[in-house]
């Protein structure tokens, strides 16, 4: 006597098996997707906790804490996709405002490169003290900063911000106008591309000019158009992924007498109309995310 299975035509049996196999594969795929989603959720939660801990840390000054409401560090870093196991390059960290957040988050499982100013005879007067102060900041609190790797950036000559193809993320905050003024912006973005792994992220925060603003005006005011920054990144090989309005400030008209430096925290006009500019707050800023294909 034949079994019920043997009574089914051969072609139908093969189709049946294929359907069952596909079903099993589908279930395995779903299980894997759920597992990965769960891992991603845990990583996101862990990152959020680490950022919160860094922001509330005793190593931060009250003056720096006061700027959190303008710079939105947690939301910005989460938008860029920061994880504690990443290799991250912070570009021109200045006094280390963002370093105070990044270093604790990355200290145990990740790596932070601080690509600071390259100091030579030409730049020593301004960049020398700034870099020295940054180094002193790191040395003063080894429990926070002892694993930060300090490199230098001055494109096109000095571009070794991290080993080529080693970084998961490169971050720059309010620097593009400086490179545009020095005519080194294209070479600088190429340095970012070189440092990143394929699939790595470039995160850019910059003062935002109104669309159509001339390059001359952008350089003079310190505000750059989104179109200009996107073109710099795309010309270097990056793909534009997304923008966020987390650092937007609709109160900022961008047409101030001394450009972006009219506003806090610089207050270049000192006490002249200070209350007016304090009410505006810090600049309107673009927040752009790119990926290296």
Structural write-up:
This protein has 293 residues and is an alpha/beta fold. The protein has two domains: 1-56; 61-291, Rossmann fold, CATH 3.40.50.150. The protein is built from twelve helices and seven strands. The protein has helices at residues 10-55, 62-65, 68-71, 73-80, 99-106, 124-140, 142-145, 176-182, 185-195, 215-221, 226-235, 274-280; strands at 87-91, 111-117, 149-153, 167-173, 196-207, 239-244, 285-291. The protein has a seven-stranded mixed beta sheet, sandwiched between helices. Strand 1 (87-91), helix 5 (99-106) and strand 2 (111-117) form a beta-alpha-beta unit. Helix 1 packs across helix 5 and helix 8 crosses helix 10 (215-221). The protein is globular, with a radius of gyration of 24 Å. 35% of the residues are buried. Mean pLDDT is 90; it is low at 1-10.
- Reported by name, the CATH topology of the largest domain is Rossmann fold
User: What are the secondary-structure elements, in order, as H or E?
Assistant: HHHHEHEHHEEHHEHHEHE
Residues in helix, %: 40-55%
Strand order of the largest sheet: 3-2-1-4-5-7-6
Work out the number of β strands: 7
């Amino acid at each position: 006597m034949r079994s019920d299975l043997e009574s089914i035509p051969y072609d139908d049996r093969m189709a049946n098996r294929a359907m069952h196999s596909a079903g099993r594969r589908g279930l395995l795929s779903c299980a894997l997707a759920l597992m990965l989603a769960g891992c991603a959720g845990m990583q996101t939660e862990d990152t959020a906790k680490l950022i919160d801990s860094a922001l509330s840390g005793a190593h931060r000054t009250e003056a720096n804490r006061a700027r959190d409401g303008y710079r939105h560090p947690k939301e910005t870093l989460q938008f860029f996709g920061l994880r504690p196991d990443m290799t991250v390059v912070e570009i021109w960290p200045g006094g280390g405002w963002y370093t105070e957040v990044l270093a604790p988050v990355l200290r145990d499982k990740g790596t932070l490169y601080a690509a600071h100013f390259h100091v030579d005879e030409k730049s020593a007067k301004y960049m020398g003290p700034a870099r020295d102060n940054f180094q002193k900041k790191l040395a003063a609190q080894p429990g926070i900063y002892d694993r930060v790797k300090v490199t230098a950036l001055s494109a096109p000559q000095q571009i070794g911000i991290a080993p080529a193809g080693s970084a998961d993320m490169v971050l720059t905050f309010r620097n593009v106008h400086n490179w545009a003024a020095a005519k080194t912006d294209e070479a600088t973005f190429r340095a970012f591309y070189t440092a990143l792994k394929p699939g790595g992220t470039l995160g850019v925060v910059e003062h935002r000019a109104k669309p159509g603003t001339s390059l001359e005006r952008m350089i003079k005011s310190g505000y750059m158009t989104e179109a200009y920054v996107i073109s710099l990144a795309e010309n270097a090989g990056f793909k534009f992924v997304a923008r966020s309005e987390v650092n937007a400030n609709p109160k900022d008209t961008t047409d101030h007498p001394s450009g972006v430096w009219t506003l806090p925290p610089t207050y270049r006009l000192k006490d002249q109309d200070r209350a007016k500019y304090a009410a505006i707050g810090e600049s309107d800023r673009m927040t752009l995310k790119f990926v290296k294909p």
